[in-house]
Design goal:
- The two termini are 17 Å apart.
- Helix 3 runs antiparallel to helix 4 (70-80), helix 7 (140-147) packs antiparallel against helix 8 and helix 11 packs across helix 13 (265-275).
- The protein has helices spanning 10-22, 25-50, 56-67, 70-80, 91-104, 113-120, 140-147, 155-164, 188-195, 214-227, 233-246, 252-261, 265-275; strands at residues 109-112, 128-133, 151-153, 167-172, 178-182, 198-200, 209-211.
- 57% of the residues lie in helices and 11% in strands.
- It is globular, with a radius of gyration of 19 Å.
């Protein structure tokens, strides 16, 4: 079995994995939330040391510049000149506000990416929450109106994303964490994901959230990993984390079926080997 880190003893990792398996989703999310807040605070402290005269909004703008693309960072700078931020770096604030927007719009959605990987596998800090949502062009004005109450967005980018059914990004103004919303095409695989969504309670003051199933998270990550040339070691470790924590509870028949259909069978074999699992 390949360990998540070269300096981690296999037995120590097995103990950690067993503890994660026994932990409820709320505890896993609490750890993820804490890790994110600590990582963000350390980054912000470093910015403050480099620029001791910076106001909170200037620190927030620099934080965005350090972690997000240039267009988003430039956009948030202009907003922060008019609106203050608490700079909480709180995943719960960001997650709750987005879920409430999807619910107000009565739009099917689910969480994927780093947050889903952390809920099902090994936890790590996440400055971004990835959503897939069934947003149609006729909802454009309502989507923009609701998003602008809590996030910085590029209105033109959102309108274009809904029109072309692609995706858009924004920054949650209180936490300064990024949200990414993908508008997945209506393929057979996308339909399968929506039919297998899991509902989780991650915190008392947060709505129930829809998360892609562990198997579909794995398959989506396989697709991204393959598209990136199968070179991203950190992403591979995230995938292995899900295999290790979920273990024999994974639906290997489903994984086998879809990896064959998506031409990803070699990745399933490699992941099972690295995670120390047998298929089926």
């Amino acid at each position: 079995m390949r360990t998540q880190s070269r300096d981690t003893h296999p037995e120590a990792e097995r103990v950690l994995i067993e503890l994660i398996r026994k932990a409820p989703m709320s505890k896993r999310f609490r750890l993820l939330r804490s890790m994110t807040a600590v990582a963000a605070k350390l980054n912000q402290q470093n910015i403050r040391q480099l620029h001791p005269d910076f106001a909170k909004e200037e620190i927030a703008a620099t934080f965005a510049t350090d972690h997000y693309d240039r267009k988003l960072a430039q956009g948030i700078q202009s907003i922060l000149k008019q609106r203050k931020t608490s700079l909480t770096s709180d995943l719960l604030d960001t997650l709750s506000s987005m879920v409430k927007i999807f619910e107000l719009l009565h739009v099917p959605y689910y969480v994927e990416g780093t947050m889903a990987l952390s809920l099902y596998g090994m936890q790590r800090a996440a400055f971004n929450i990835d959503f897939v949502a069934d947003l149609q062009p006729n909802l454009s004005d309502n989507v923009i109106k609701l998003l602008k109450t809590t996030c910085y967005i590029d209105e033109g980018a959102v309108k274009n994303a809904l029109l072309t059914q692609t995706g858009f990004e924004g920054i949650h103004l209180e936490s300064m964490l990024k949200i990414s919303v993908s508008l997945a095409p209506n393929t057979t695989f996308d339909q399968a994901i929506y039919s297998r969504l899991q509902q989780h309670i991650v915190a008392e003051n947060c709505p129930v959230i829809s998360v892609a199933s562990p198997e579909d998270v794995i398959l989506s990550q396989f697709q991204e990993y393959q598209a990136g040339g199968e070179l991203a070691d950190d992403q591979w470790n995230d995938i292995l984390g899900v295999f290790k924590v979920q273990g024999e509870a994974l639906d290997f028949a489903y994984l086998q079926q879809w990896t064959e259909m998506l031409d990803l069978s070699h990745l399933l074999a490699n992941a099972c080997f690295d995670a120390g699992l047998k298929k089926g």
